[in-house]
Amino acid sequence: MLFSAQTVAMFGGFFASIIQARWMEPAEMGRFAFCLSIVLVTSLFFEFGVSSAGARVLALALDAREQRQALGALTLMTFVLSIAFTLFIAAAAGPIDSIFNKDVRWLFIGTAALAFFQPFQLFIEQACQGLNQIRRLSVFQLLMSGSYLLALIVLIAFGRLNAGTALGANLAGTGVAAAWTLARMRPTFSGASRFVRLALKETRGYGFNLYLARVSGVASSRSDQLAIGYFLAGTAPLGMYAIAQKFSNPIAMMGRSVAVTRFRTFARLTSVPARITRWNAVLLVCAAVGLVLFGPFVLKFAFPKYSEAAPLLIPFATMNLFVGLFQPYNVFLASHGRGVELRNIVLIVGVATIATLLVTVPRFGITGAAWTCAASMALDYILHVYYYRQFKRTLTKQSE
């Protein structure tokens, strides 16, 4: 069920990218990509590990009544964090515009109210996992993708699609999905204070470690767009970069979806089955080769405004190939609670990526950024294999 939902949501996001490539100019696409990166990165800083700790609190709740009370406590905490995040976006609009010089001040101010819903995305996802409500999680992901896609179609019909309205549609889609899902989960706020204290206790330990890893990972994954926004003049280069990146994302999504569905199975195994890594590699290589061979023709004839982005498809295909390859190892380590190893991987890759981008983007522009990301994901794959083999040897010794 979750695999199907993620697959449909992936194609929904892909169609949204096609709509943007068809009806948005590269400069507007660049402004949208830049603002969305800022919102996604900064929203995680305001999460503080509450959602991750909340998933554990919900999983340990003894009955349905306690689950609803815990959910009410976490909803109140996320509500407070969302208000703080909204105020931050409105207040930071001017400084961000001054630093990056991308004419986005009023775009941020105009969508600040809708940014309120962004912290609820991670909260809903973690809450559904903690309660083992996979069907609800699947519907939530479909609602986000479907609402966003529908909003873009409406904007096209009225001739109002631009960077600001596209960002608003993205945030509104999250809001619709979060509101519907939370209403169906029926949190109760009576007696929630006990679970607020419990969630804060879990956040200081377990949740905060995951928070650091998540912030580092997202900051690293979005650092390329932020570096392009800072070092390169105008927003058109970032628009070209964002479209090429979006066209290649489905490659990695295949490996990620398959690996996630095997989480529970991996937790009971001592190694990743060879058939999974073999077929995963075959599918990823075929998808990457297909993108490199046919992607430039699609851009040239279907999206001529973005035809200059064709050379970027090679590094992005390489990048997503490695992202897909390390997914089985990532999920295997996560299923066995190897948080330290995953944190180390994120930190090493994050530092290496940011340091390299500071050199390659000023000198080689968006091409340098794309190849930097490809090299970073190759390093990510190597580190995953290294830690996986180390842990596998540990499991083997324990079983002897």
Q: Which runs of at least 5 residues are low in confidence (pLDDT < 50)?
A: none
State the end-to-end CA separation: 37 Å
Strand segment count: 0
Quaternary status? single chain
Task: Give the overall shape.
Answer: globular
- Bin the helical content: over 70%
- Topology as a string of helices (H) and strands (E): HHHHHHHHHHHHHH
User: Could you tell me the strand content as a percent range?
Assistant: under 5%
Structural class: mainly alpha
Query: What number of domains?
Result: 2
Q: Average pLDDT, to the nearest integer?
A: 86
Q: How many helix segments?
A: 14
Query: Main beta sheet: strand number and arrangement?
Result: none
What is the radius of gyration?
21 Å
Protein architecture, described:
The protein is an all-alpha fold and 400 residues long. It folds into 2 domains: 1-215, no CATH class; 235-391, no CATH class. The chain is 85% helix and 0% strand. It has 14 helices and no strands. The protein has helices at 2-23, 26-45, 50-60, 64-100, 105-111, 118-130, 134-157, 163-185, 193-231, 236-261, 263-266, 274-302, 313-335, 339-399. The radius of gyration is 21 Å and the shape is globular. 48% of the residues are buried.
Reconstruct the topology from this structure:
Elements (H helix, E strand, L loop, with lengths): L1 H22 L2 H20 L4 H11 L3 H37 L4 H7 L6 H13 L3 H24 L5 H23 L7 H39 L4 H26 L1 H4 L7 H29 L10 H23 L3 H61 L1
